[in-house]
Request: fold
Amino acid sequence: MLLQRILTRKNSLSGVQYRDEPAIFAWELMNEPRCLSDVSGQTLQAWITEMAQFLKSIDGNHLLTVGHEGFYGPTTPEKFEVNPGDWAQALGVDFMHNSAIEAIDFASVHAYPDSWVPDKELDGKLGYFSRWVKSHIEDGEQVLKKPVLFTEFGLSSLCKDYEASHRDLLLKTMYDKIYESAKEGGAGAGAMVWQFVLEGMEEYGDEFSIIPWQRQSTYNRIIEQSCRLQILRRTEGEEKQSLSAACASL
Reply:
């Protein structure tokens, strides 16, 4: 089976099998899974359950997530109002049901407000984005009892009236929500922008791509978030003070 071959493949540099590779943080079963042929969500639920158990039988060292966009499905109709539209609950996915599977270690969520609510102005998109993030963090804390990691989020440069400063606002909205949760020991585990690229690699990017250090305010926002989350984890006063000084200098 292909999955088994991947997990037991040896890293060509270290000689370590991927299932034992410490450089790997986690696996996701599929990027943005959907099953339009079964809107009840049962087909996808059965597949995730089977594949998660199989993966864990081979690799018990790494965390596992679904790769979910985060759309609410049939088991939580009271959450439909949080979805970006009626179309989202007809994709055969069910965020809460899928993420509750025992072998799934943390919930994954994506967020693309410009694609999902394209008719809203920037303030409306950011408002929706904020509610989306808040809702899923609350799900992790109150129901799933699992961390929630926003594994993709971004703002397209092709949006009407796009300005680079809009991305800074999106980053601030996400990062503040994550920090507020982490500060209280909540489920907000982190967030990863889609996507960072290096100079000269732009052809491999898309309209969401960011070269952080090309815009100082964006770069500062990212570094500041990393810094203040590290501060929460520090226990020794001197280390905390050192990190605090580093953050204050941004």
About this structure: The mean pLDDT is 93. The beta strands are 26-28, 63-65, 107-111, 148-153, 188-191. The chain has one domain: 25-248.
